[in-house]
Amino acid sequence: MKKTASKPITPVPQSVWLDTDIGDDTDDIFALALILASPELNLTGVSTVFGETDARARLAQTLLKLHARDNVPVFAGCGHPLLGNGRMDILPNGPMVREPIAQGACALPKYKLPTLPKTHAVEAMARLIRSNPGQMIPVAIGPLTNIATLILEDPKIVKKIPRLVVMGGEFKKCMWEWNIHCDPQSAACVVESDLPIDFIPWAIGMTCTVSTVQLNQLFASRTRTGRLLTRAVKLWRKAKPRLHHMPHLFDPMAVAVLLHPEWFEWQRGRVSVSFAPASFAHTQFTPDPQGPHRIARQVKKSVAVRTVWDRILAL
């Protein structure tokens, strides 16, 4: 009997949900671009967090529309910290009026974008997780208010999430990191839930810095995405003139965890959030081989930056 050649098995793309404070620093929009450039990932939804969440959502919609991916739903989420008004704001917790996001001018006008759903981001995320238990990995690259609210609304939902990837915290230096500092109560709620979490800390992002040559490659791009990302970088530089102006790939490294986990050296244990006056909002780590958390200690920065940047430029 003649044998027929077996067809190679095509891996099923990993379903992900991006929870982001896109619109200020450049790394969020780069992270979304990396997901769109990665056939290994299936983007099931985007939620925005912190401050002007509706404006952030329109920026995310703009990048999706450029790639004919405006079928991916985008939801505005929690704008206020969990205890922002001196009480626990679970739901509703909508946009917080503050200074306009730095990259707001990159967004298309409202009439060119899908109408933002009235459904709150946390509710939308919860529905998808419940309907696809154990299938979708949230990637949280902003303050953890949406994730904390999700858990507070339904503590049992953590059993339906295979793991969470977080860009946040710092474990080498005695310092607070921005995403944790913006809502430390939410961060504490998330880490105390026993949800499996992979952390990309501040030090990893600082290591993964775009070079002048690489940035000039972006600026020379004539694609619609290249022009959008170039404008985002220039608006970020204008809004934050005192910062070192070479983009760091904090948030894209959180996405890279799902693409190339072998780039990272991990340590397992338990993360906690300090509320002591001298170390308020600092993250602390206790090694434990049975702990629910992993923190990235090292990264193969050369290959990571080169591969991630080349994918973004190819959009």
Question: What's the SSE blueprint?
Answer:
Elements: E1 14-20, H1 27-36, E2 41-48, H2 53-66, E3 74-76, H3 121-131, E4 136-140, H4 145-153, E5 164-167, H5 178-182, H6 184-191, E6 197-200, H7 202-207, H8 212-219, H9 224-239, H10 250-259, E7 264-273, E8 283-287, E9 293-299, H11 301-313
Parallel strand pairs: 1-2, 1-4, 2-3, 4-5, 5-6, 6-9
Antiparallel strand pairs: 7-8, 7-9
CATH superfamily: Ribonucleoside hydrolase-like
Distance between the termini: 47 Å
Rg, Å, rounded: 19 Å
Q: How many H/I helical runs?
A: 11
List the secondary-structure elements in sequence, H or E.
Answer: EHEHEHEHEHHEHHHHEEEH
Apparent shape = globular
Low-pLDDT sequence parts: none
> How is the main sheet built?
9 strands, mixed
On the 0 to 100 scale, the average pLDDT is 92
| Count of spatially separate domains | 1
| SSE class | alpha/beta
How are the strands of the largest sheet arranged?
3-2-1-4-5-6-9-7-8
